[in-house]
C-alpha cells in the first residue's frame, strides 16, 4: 500500500528543511470543522492552490519560484483536480515553474531536474 499524500509531503518537507531552500506549505487539504474552514477562507485560503510554494527561483532559469502539487506515489495525472490545474496554470502564466510530484522521490527528482540542491 502506498503512503498517503500527507506522509509523502511530510518526508519532502523534512528533506527541504535540510537545504537552504525557502518554502512554505499551503494548508488546503485535510478535514476541518465548518467554523475553522470559514475562518481560513476569510483569511485568504484559496482552494486548489498547490501544496508547496518555493520562493527561491530554480537556479539558472527565468522562473520566479516553484509551485509543487503533491500526490501519492501511486497517483495518476487524473488525481490533479481541474481547480488545481487551473491554479497551476495561473501561476505558470505569472512566471512560476509548476510541478506535480507523485510521492517524495518523484518530487525530489523533479526539483533536482530544475536545479534545486535537494
What does this structure look like?
It is built from four helices and four strands, in the order αβαββαβα. The longest helix is centred in the first third of the chain and has 12 residues, at 5-16. Helix 3 links the parallel strand 3 (65-71) and strand 4 (96-102). With 118 residues, it is α+β, with helices and mostly antiparallel strands. It has a single domain, classed as Trna Endonuclease, Chain: A, domain 1 (3-Layer(aba) Sandwich). It is globular. The chain has a four-stranded mixed β-sheet, sandwiched between helices.
**What's the N-to-C terminus distance?**
26 Å
Number of domains: 1
Strand content: 15-25%
Shape: globular
Strand segment count = 4
Roughly how many Å is the radius of gyration? 14 Å
CATH topology category name: Trna Endonuclease, Chain: A, domain 1
